[in-house]
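Good morning C.,

I know you're traveling, so I'll keep this short. The sequence:
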Amino acid sequence: MLYGYYDELPKTLSDAEIKYLLKLYKEEDSKEAFEELIVHNLLLIKHIIKIKFFNSRYDREDLFSVGIIGLMRAIKKYDYLRDTNFSLYIGISIEREIIKYLKKEIKHQTNLSLNELVYQDSKNEVTFEENIKDLSETLEEEILNKEVLELIYKIILEIPNKKEREIMLLYFDKDNPLKQRDIAKMYGFVQSKVCRIIIKNLRYIKRRLYDIENKTMLKK
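The tokens, ready to paste straight into the viewer:
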């Protein structure tokens, strides 16, 4: 059965049921388990739209469909062996997918003001202009990241502390890199603690890259 934003949606699952279905999907590639995980998390999509995007002028059914895409991607990428909060993880993915959709829609409508509200939470308003600034990096940084990204992943896997290693992998994720505040929510940390962990390990990565570069030059 297909569900929409205005339908009565199935209830959410218990933590035990989620763990069971994730194990079934990841280990046995069960399509039924995958579908169950989608269907029983549709209420979360509806909740996010009502709370975070209530001021959007876009159709809620459209936002709901986009949210399902974000949910599916999150379920596919989620590592159930990690000690991370499943609901927070998929919630972040759903929000990002909807924001990405709204930004794309606004770009195609030249008559809209740059400051049209596209996202709002209980404390802050985020405009399209601010989203662009928030998500953009300099071209030089993007090129550099692409050139050394694989090497960075290898160095991150050398980090001895498991939790710090996981945080750095989330921060440098290829498809969906998380911000410090999102990582902090996942682990129940204050953002400043995540910031300290990232800075500490960025220094380690920088030192390792420097060592590797020196060794490469000596070989030449």
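Safe travels,
E.
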